[in-house]
Amino acid sequence: MTVGGIVLCGGKSTRMGVPKATLPFGAETMLQRVVRLLGTVVSPIIVVAARDQALPPLPHAVRITRDE
Predict the structure, then answer these.
(1) Cα angle vertex 42, ends 59, 27, to 5°?
(2) What rounded mean pLDDT belongs to the chain?
(3) What percentage of the chain exceeds 90 in pLDDT?
(4) CB < 8 Å & 24+ apart, contacts of 65-68
(5) DSSP letters along the chain, please?
(6) What's the whole-number mean pLDDT along residues 38-64?
(7) Confidence band (pLDDT; 50, 70, 90) for 46?
(8) Considering the entire predicted model, what is its pTM?
(9) Which of 14, 36, 57, 65 has the largest CB neighbor count within 10 A?
(10) How many CA atoms lie within 13 A of 13 on its CB side?
(11) More confident: 48 or 1
(12) Are strands 5-8 and 45-50 parallel, antiparallel or unpaired?
């Protein structure tokens, strides 16, 4: 059986003032940490981002799709 994971990161983060996906979390960003940890238990991983959202570097196997 194949189990995949979806990470939703395209919110506007209006209360935070900056995108939560790019917040530093130790040596990586929040999104990088979530993807790394999720990758230990599921595959494939799909990241859903906003249309023009900048993303930190992610592993090549991670699929990125944009929410219109």
Answers:
(1) 40
(2) 94
(3) 78
(4) 66/10, 67/10
(5) ----EEEE-----TTTSS-GGGSEETTEEHHHHHHHHHTTT-SSEEEEEETT-------TT-EEEEE-
(6) 96
(7) very high
(8) 0.90
(9) 36
(10) 14
(11) 48
(12) parallel
Distance of alpha carbon 64 from alpha carbon 47, whole angstroms? 5
Q: Residue 10 to residues 2, 5, 17, 65: CA-CA distances in angstroms? A: 25, 16, 14, 10
> Could you give the CA distance from residue 13 to residue 37 in angstroms, rounded to a whole number?
22
Which among 24, 37, 44, 55 has a CA at the least distance from the CA of 67? Answer: 55
Which residues, 6+ apart, have CB-to-CB distance to 5 below 8 Å?
38, 39, 41, 42, 43, 44, 45, 46
